[in-house]
Amino acid sequence: MGKRNWTDQELYRDILNGGRSREAALQYVYTGTDWKRTLNAWVKQGGGTPEDAEEVFQDSIIAFDRSIREGRFERKSALKTYFLGIAKRQWLKVLKKSNRQLPFGMWFEETMEDKMEELLYAKEKKAVLTKVIGMMGERCQVLLKLFGLDYSMKEIAEEVSLRDQEAAKKEVYRCRERLKKILDDNQDLRKLLE
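User: That's the sequence. What structure does it adopt?
Assistant: Structure tokens below.
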């Protein structure tokens, strides 16, 4: 548990592993991140009490843990963004239960902030992938781009002047293996893509 600054990948993996790994990961979320502070500020801004914030945080950790273990987290955003999305829904439940409402301006602002964070995260991943593919030869870059655009093997063969779809399949496979090797040799880049 002496770990500091776990990556999203490590947190995700350890929660899925269960047992002590899961406990350590959730303890880290609880005490080693700024997630609680962010949530507390948000609840306070929405007129909530410290007790409201604690209740929301506890419920959110339970929902976050369950959601990851049940495979509902699709890894399209950072874990913090995902957790705060859960927390915001939990906070709205508290407000609804007590017949209070969140100021509209605040709700809109928070929603837009989440969308911007998701867009930045996607943009970072795209930049890393572009960099990794740039480390390959030009032919592989073209082949993987066509493959990524869901071209059929027949269309790829025609596009890059190969004799048939079997030849295209072999070349795409070689390029994918080369890409895998580059990622295996550059674990930092692989982590950024996960």
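Residues 104-109 have pLDDT under 50 and may be disordered.
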